[in-house]
Write a structure and sequence with these properties.
CATH topology: M1 Pyruvate Kinase, Domain 3
Order of helices and strands: EEEEEEEHEEEHHEEEH
CATH architecture: Beta Barrel
Radius of gyration: 16 Å
CATH superfamily: PK beta-barrel domain-like
Structural class: alpha+beta
Distance between the termini: 35 Å
Strand order of the largest sheet: 1-8-7-11-10-9-13
Length: 194
């Protein structure tokens, strides 16, 4: 079960005001890649903030990871919805993730699994549940619903051992207890997503 997972990009953002459905909304979903080592503390990555700490961030949701393997799906869905040109690139961080990973999908991940990086260790705590801000980030109104239907949700990580992290690193994926899978937990609550 232990195998390497590639960290392609580390992404951060600070809250900014977007206009969503004609109203100003504070959001930090627009993550952007950063170069070099980034400090990882108990509440997440240095330089990263959450606009609504009641649903994002905190010790259990300190870092959000997303598989880059799903990006082609979102590129196609955005093009079909007229939100982007066909073949338009979707840069890492576009789904709102802090860590853009390659080699680990939600269907393989269980609550309690660990990602051991060279200088820090993170533990899977729960799936990410999208809201209307995800629709705005993708550029079309059914994005959150399609995430709920596909199960392409990514997962939150708690910080087990603080340190630093950088794009290009390889993490060791260490299996935790096989009691509750990310996809099962996501689907048990996904019916609430509109």
């Amino acid at each position: 079960m232990n195998r390497p997972v590639n960290l392609q990009s580390v992404n951060v953002a600070v809250p900014e005001t977007w206009t969503i459905d004609g109203k100003p909304v504070l959001t930090a979903i627009g993550k952007r890649p950063v170069e070099g080592p980034v400090a990882v503390g108990d509440l997440g990555l240095a330089g990263d903030r959450q606009a609504d700490p009641s649903v994002h961030g905190g010790p259990r949701k300190a870092v959000y990871a997303y598989p880059l393997e799903h990006y082609p799906v979102w590129q196609t869905l955005r093009a079909q919805a007229g939100a982007a040109d066909w073949g338009a690139p979707l840069p890492p961080g576009s789904v709102g993730e802090n860590l853009s990973l390659r080699g680990l999908l939600e269907a393989e991940v269980w609550i309690g699994d660990r990602l051991r990086f060279p200088d820090c260790e993170l533990i899977v705590s729960e799936p990410r549940f999208p809201c209307f801000k995800f629709n705005a980030a993708m550029g079309f109104n059914r994005a959150a619903k399609l995430m709920a239907q596909s199960g392409y949700c990514g997962f939150y990580l708690a910080v087990h051992r603080p340190g630093t992290i950088a794009a290009g690193q390889v993490a060791e994926w260490i299996a935790g207890p096989r009691e509750l899978g990310v996809v099962e937990l996501f689907r048990s609550k996904a019916h609430l997503i509109k």
